[in-house]
Amino acid sequence: MDLGIRGKTALVAASSKGLGRGCAMALAEAGVNLVLNARGNDALQATAAEIRARYAVHVTAIAADITSEEGRRAVLDAAAGADILVTNAGGPPPGLWSDWTRDDFLRAIDANMLTPIALMQALLPAMMERGWGRVVNITSQSVKAPIAQLGLSNAARAGLTGFVAGTSRQVAPRGVTINNLLPGIHDTDRAISLDSGVVKALGITMDEARAKRMADIPARRYGTAQDFGAACAFLCSQQAAFIVGQNILLDGGATNATL
Ligand code: NAP
Questions:
Q1: Which residue of 26, 170, 245, 258 has the fewest CB atoms within a 10 Å radius of its CB?
Q2: What phi and psi values does residue 153 have, to the nearest 5 degrees?
Q3: Which residues contact 215 (CB under 8 A, 6 or more apart)?
């Protein structure tokens, strides 16, 4: 399907690996020029090089911490005037509700709520002026159904979700859509790190931990970065113009809910 966005420019934050990389790949396949970002330069340059080799799009790669003001400034300087914004950052560490300190909460809120909000505040005005824009925030299934050991994620992402619910309705009249994509378990470094937590907690092997987590997913597998990227690129398409302020689960059916 032609997504109708060839020649547009996207900022995809935290995109050298995993879900952000999947979004970048799918947008590049649709002909979108990219500003990529991650902290580590090696994986970032490798992803940029792979995209340049596969697709005829322009790729700029900015190594910076997107959760810091200085890092955001560097990324936004390169992405000024972007038509599409995909927000993303690393997820907070797992733990127990009683152990997290104020600083733990502030770090999670900074990364998974205030950083995407700052990126939107920076890029939405120009999108609205041009009468076209797309924002996709990578959040988590924990927004719909809390994950006990990921309380920092449950809390911070709920804040972002509330902001998007209100803001998306204010920018939609100017041709700009904002939606959230809620990943369930996808086969990325993040999943491996959470699998390792299950290995440690239950004293089982990595294969057993993955089989145990897959058994809870009706699709009986983890999602892939390609699955995720395809959904992200569709939300950025011309065809998705009427999808506004939604929270779309990509979890293989894992969240057991009617709505
Ligand atoms: P991942 O495979 O660990 O990849 C994270 C990417 O983000 C890497 O490119 C990493 O590169 C970059 N990154 C991390 N922190 C950054 C920062 N402060 N500034 C700039 N770049 C940063 O993670 P993922 O699985 O794609 O997860 C992406 C998001 O989705 C996370 O917030 C995660 O919690 C959430 N999520 C994932 C799953 C899942 O199953 N995979 C499920 C639910 C929610 P550098 O480390 O080099 O910076």
A1: 258
A2: -70, -45
A3: none
Q: Residue 58 is encoded by which pair of tokens?
A: 């322009």
Which residue carries 């041009």 as its tokens?
A: 130
| Residue recorded with tokens 């697709």 | 55
CB-based pocket (< 6 A), ligand 1: 14-20, 37-40, 43, 65-67, 88-91, 138, 140-141, 183, 185-186, 188-191
Integer Cα distance of 214 and 237 in angstroms: 31
Our measurement of the distance from residue 197's CA atom to the centroid of its chain's CA atoms, rounded to an integer in Å, reads 22
The one-letter amino acid at 98: S
Burial of residue 148, with CB atoms counted within 10 A of its CB: 0-12 exposed, 13-18 middle, 19 or more buried: exposed
Residue among 112, 188, 213 to mutate when testing ligand 1 (max atoms within 8 A of CB):
188
**pLDDT band per the 50, 70, 90 thresholds, residue 233:** very high
Overall pTM > 0.90:
yes
CA of 237 to the centre of ligand 1 (A): 23
Probe target for ligand 1 pocket from 76, 88, 143, 216, with the most ligand atoms within 8 Å of CB: 88
Q: What is the pLDDT of residues 6-19, one digit of tens each?
A: 999 999 999 999 99
Compute the residue count for the chain.
Answer: 259
pLDDT in tens, 146-200: 999 999 999 999 999 999 999 999 999 999 999 999 999 999 998 898 899 899 9
